[in-house]
Amino acid sequence: MATTQLFVELLIIGIGAAIWLALLLGAIFGYRMEMDFPTIGAPAMVALAGVAYVLGILVDRLAYKTFRRIERRLSRSILDREDFPAPQILERQILASSEILGAQIQYNRSRLRICRAWVFNGAFITIAFIAWNLRVQALDVWQSIALSVLGVLLCISSAWAARTLAKDHYNNLKESYEYLKIKQSTPSP
């Protein structure tokens, strides 16, 4: 995976974490956020990007640890055959054998990481938003309920997408490995 792609992936995850952290701090200190956002200079943007990147790493690890059991079950249901190596070895073999198949696997893995992490980001944003709004009462009850429902829907849809992408990832590993085995056993003309 390209370093830039991984950085952007963790930044996307980290921006979500920065949102819920800002809402949580706003709730603790009773800060009413204004709709006119302040202008942020380049040095501050670099610092915020660095913080978001670190937060992205933390949330990614939390999401990975949490969803690891689910992914292992999916892996076993799809790849549990005697002629298949462990999923990690399988993935490495495909990455080393085919640049095109490897790029597809890395792209799918990237989407999985983002969706998996946004299950947590969506939940934490929703909880922090509710805490913040209860503290400062910036929105009326219906607006608050509507945004809370949207947050819950974001969590549910992210969880569904993460599970679907994990299943697709293991199916992709299986099909790519089978393709490469056939290709290796077929003599070249």
Q: What do these coordinates show?
A:
The protein has 189 residues and is mainly alpha-helical. Helix content is 84%, strand content 0%. The protein has helices spanning 3-29, 42-79, 87-97, 99-136, 141-185. Helix 1 (3-29) packs parallel to helix 4 (99-136), helix 2 (42-79) packs across helix 4 and helix 4 (99-136) packs antiparallel against helix 5. The longest helix has 45 residues, at 141-185.
Which terms summarize this structure?
189 residues; mainly alpha
State the gist of this model.
This protein is mainly alpha-helical and 189 residues long. The chain has helices spanning 3-29, 42-79, 87-97, 99-136, 141-185.
Report strand %. Answer: under 5%
**What is the CA-based Rg, rounded?**
21 Å
Q: Would you report the number of β strands?
A: 0
Task: Kindly name the structural category.
Answer: mainly alpha
SSE ordering: HHHHH
Shape category: elongated
For the largest beta-sheet, the strand count, sense and barrel status come to:
none
Low-confidence runs (pLDDT<50, min 5 residues)? none
Mean pLDDT: 88
Helix content: over 70%
Distance between the first and last residues' Cα: 33 Å
- Count of DSSP H/I helices: 5
Protein topology:
Blueprint: H1 3-29, H2 42-79, H3 87-97, H4 99-136, H5 141-185
